[in-house]
UniProtKB/TrEMBL annotation:
Residues 41-261 form the Histidine kinase domain. It catalyses: ATP + protein L-histidine = ADP + protein N-phospho-L-histidine. Its EC number is 2.7.13.3. This is histidine kinase. GO terms for molecular function: phosphoprotein phosphatase activity; phosphorelay sensor kinase activity. It comes from the Bacteria. One of its GO terms (cellular component) is plasma membrane. It is an enzyme of class 2 (transferase). It comes from Psychroserpens burtonensis. GO terms for biological process: cellular response to phosphate starvation. Signal peptide: none annotated. Keywords: Kinase, Membrane, Phosphoprotein, Transferase, Transmembrane, Transmembrane helix, Two-component regulatory system.
Length: 261
């Protein structure tokens, strides 16, 4: 009898050890896959604008430089490609810092109403190009003080509002509102009546490089990094981010912030 019990215990322990090891190995495999996918994505994202720039510069060197009708146009396009490369590298830099936990939050008290107004000012031209109205929906134009990293929250607002313009309908609207939540929290919502996102795409939206329209001839440019940066920043603040969306109706991204006591 005692031997059987011991054997049983031993078997159990071996089983548990084997299970733990298996889990450890599985985790390593998943990480390795993730790393490979990430590197693949990075080089793919960089290649497209690099080849664009190279293409235009080569055409210019092959003679187009002296063709008054096209030379400026090609230079502008090459420059646009470089701009895109810079954006991607800056986003990658940010993601890396956020993922290694290297990003120090610079927490301060600031007026979120004023910050939203300043982001609106910066993006007014971009919205005007698509005749999109930026609407700030607040009851009273009084300061609402929050405690957070102002520069990072500005980036969150900017990424969300830029998306709502990029994926918004011509002549549509982007509305930002702030609401009080329980326990010294406010929730900031960015709502658009744009193309919306299907249920199938919602769960992966915040992943690095995830884009709904993966076709080579995408209508709008982007790296698929914006939303994952947004999520990282909000989570670094121990706050929450939500998305609700319906295809053809519009999207609402919202995040919480701590109100200054
Ligand atoms: P990017 O805009 O560079 O592709 P993001 O990470 O900001 O990357 O967004 C990921 C994807 O989510 C976008 O490619 C787009 O398909 C979808 N998306 C984001 N915001 C919106 C929005 N407001 N309306 C519709 N689709 C959106």
């Amino acid at each position: 009898q005692p031997i059987t019990t011991d054997m049983a215990t031993l078997t159990q322990e071996i089983d548990k050890y084997a299970k733990d090891k298996k889990l450890e190995i599985e985790t390593l495999i998943v990480r390795e896959e993730y790393r490979k996918e990430f590197l693949g994505n990075v080089s793919h994202e960089l290649k497209t604008p690099l080849f664009t720039v190279q293409g235009y510069l080569e055409t210019l060197l092959d003679g187009a430089l002296h063709d008054e009708k096209v030379n400026e146009k090609y230079l502008i396009r090459a420059n646009k490609g470089l701009e895109r490369l810079i954006y991607i590298v800056q986003d990658l830099d940010m993601i890396t810092k956020l993922e290694v936990g290297d990003l120090q939050l610079n927490i301060m008290e600031f007026d979120i109403v004023e910050l939203i107004e300043s982001v609106f000012d910066l993006l007014e031209m971009k919205a005007a190009k698509k005749k999109i109205s930026l609407i700030f929906d607040i009851d009273y134009n009084e300061p609402i003080m929050v405690t957070a990293d102002k520069e990072r929250i500005q980036q969150v607002l900017s990424n969300l509002i830029v998306n709502s313009i990029k994926y918004g309908e011509d002549k549509g609207t982007t509305e930002v509102s702030i609401e009080n939540l329980i326990k010294n929290k406010v929730i900031v919502r960015v709502t658009d009546n744009g193309e919306g996102i299907s249920k199938a795409n919602l769960p992966r939206l915040f992943e690095r490089f995830y884009r709904v329209d993966k076709s080579g001839s995408r209508k709008v440019g982007g790296s698929g990094l914006g939303l994952s940066i947004v999520k990282h920043i909000i989570e670094a603040h121990d706050e929450k981010i939500y998305v609700e969306s319906e295809l053809g109706v519009g999207s609402e991204f919202s995040f919480t912030l701590e109100k200054t006591k």
